Amino acid sequence: MNVDILAAVAHPDDAELLMGGTLARAVDQGHRAGILDLTRGELGTRGTPELRATEAAAAAAVLGVAERANAGLPDGHLANTDAMRRVVVEWIRRFRPRVLLLPWRVGRHPDHRIAAELIRDASFLAGLRNYPADGEPFKPFKLCHALAFREDSPKPSFIVDISAQFERKLAAVACYASQFEGATQAGELHPTGEPLLDLIRTQSAHYGSRIRRAQGEPFWTDETLEVTDLVALEVGSL
After folding, report:
1. Where does the chain show beta strands of DSSP type E?
2. Of 12, 13, 22, 46, which is least surrounded by CB within 10 A?
């Protein structure tokens, strides 16, 4: 199940909303991408877990994702406990991603906030040889928090240009008809009266404008990023 980049999120559809374009771009660049959904979304008001699983598979195919798995943790009851950390550790050891994308540390849905903490802690523990979990020790090299749709986050560390992949991102989101058909809000997206796909387009255009591109997805890292060639820096200052 080894992948180069893994999106680990609380619910089916979170990856498409937060980093669907980035996953599609990674695939277009020749990388192997994966998605780990921590829960089946069984507490969702609309649809069923079985239908959502079918929609998740369809969305993964649209994005070109090579592997998608569900950890089977309880929707609405995520907790950063040793038992749940062990489950996530074992999945990280199976996927062995160099880059791991995860939610922001704050969220309207408690699962989003807790997922960020749980996934980050599990990423560290996955590298400990003596941590009691199945699989060979492995620690992702880079962890990147998705900032899409947040109003309370810091300035992004970087924004990924998803202009060429944006329509595929929308198509992947649209696969979740049980969740989003006729919707004007979703997850951390607050309603403005626009249809959901139009709202995503508006938000993504805002992020894209910050790097002088049509569409973008923002991310944040704890560590300062290194620049190896100043002359190659993009996004003009004046």
Report:
1. 5-9, 33-39, 67-73, 99-102, 142-146, 158-161, 216-220
2. 46
Nearest to 101 by CA among 58, 63, 135: 63
pLDDT in tens, 91-101: 999 999 999 99
Q: Fold for domain 5-232?
A: Rossmann fold (3.40.50)
Global pTM? 0.95
Does residue 187 contact residue 17 with C-beta atoms inside 8 Å?
Answer: yes
By the 8 A CB rule, do 170 and 122 touch? no
Q: How far is 209 from 10, CA to CA, in rounded Å? A: 28
- In terms of Cβ atoms closer than 10 Å to its own Cβ (0-12, 13-18, 19+), residue 100 is buried
Domain boundaries, given as residue ranges, for the chain? 5-232
Contact predicate 105/121, CB 8 Å: no
Residue-wise pLDDT tens digits, 127-171 = 999 999 999 999 999 999 999 998 888 999 999 999 999 999 999
Q: Residue written as tokens 């649809």?
A: 47
